[in-house]
Amino acid sequence: MVLQSNIQDGVDVLTDGEPVEKTLSIIELISSGGLAGQVIIAILFVMLIFAIYIYFERLFAIKAASQIDSNFMNQIKDHVSNGKIDSAQMLCAQVNSPVSRLINKGITRIGKPLEDINTAIENAGRLEIYGLEKNVSILATISGVAPMIGFLGTVVGMILAIFELANAGGTIQMDVLASGLYTAMTTTVAGLIVGIVAYMFYNHLVVKTDKVVYQMEANSLEFLDHLNEPI
């Protein structure tokens, strides 16, 4: 019985001596970074929300601009061939897309030299592209600025850590350095995350916009080729 009691006491000692696993939530990690880290994280969070808003707003706008009836151009060519210019313009007004607006601009120039019609369509196309790319450049800016803001937090955190170390009287204590190190690491990670997300959003919107631009060019060339056909 004595031996069993001693063994049990040894187990209790080992159990009590086991390290307790510590967990750290994101909120605790941010709050441990001090005021400087919290301010930088807040700025990056606002930039992330803004990037998400721009992405989905532009994505829906570009998606709506790319939707057009596959029979649209055939109807336009039939109206133009039959001299029904008003009907062709009404059809363009009903569709209300970048392609229809370009074709409508060309229809209003029918009767003038083909070069003038082409110039009018190109000018209208530049305005349409500008509208499609509205605020997309902000995503590119966020993708470049966010990591730099995160690195700024890293520098601030390291300065705070060195300052605390210099005032520690020659003794190195991790709890003294913790606040500065938390600021350095959390801001770096947050800046990189925001930058990567914004960069992915930007590239996806560029690809989507290029598809709409190609659609505009293809339909414009088809319209000009139809006008150039001998009667």
Give an account of the 3D structure.
Belongs to the exbB/tolQ family. The chain crosses the membrane at residues 35-56, 136-162, 182-202. The chain has 231 residues and is mainly alpha-helical. The chain has one domain (35-228). Helix content is 83%, strand content 0%. The chain contains 9 helices and no strands. The chain has helices at residues 2-17, 26-31, 34-66, 72-81, 85-95, 98-108, 114-132, 136-166, 174-228. Helix 4 (72-81) runs parallel beside helix 9 (174-228). The longest helix has 55 residues, at 174-228. The chain is rod-shaped, with a radius of gyration of 32 Å.
Which secondary structure elements does this structure contain, and how are they paired or packed?
Blueprint: H1 2-17, H2 26-31, H3 34-66, H4 72-81, H5 85-95, H6 98-108, H7 114-132, H8 136-166, H9 174-228
Pfam families: MotA_ExbB
Main location: membrane
Domain MotA/TolQ/ExbB proton channel: 96-217
User: What structural class is derived from the secondary structure elements?
Assistant: mainly alpha
N-to-C span = 114 Å
Principal-axis shape: rod-shaped
What percent of the residues sit in helical stretches (DSSP H or I)?
over 70%
- Outline the biggest β-sheet: none
Family: Belongs to the exbB/tolQ family.
Membrane topology: Multi-pass membrane protein
Keywords: Cell membrane, Membrane, Protein transport, Transmembrane, Transmembrane helix, Transport
Organism: Psychroserpens burtonensis
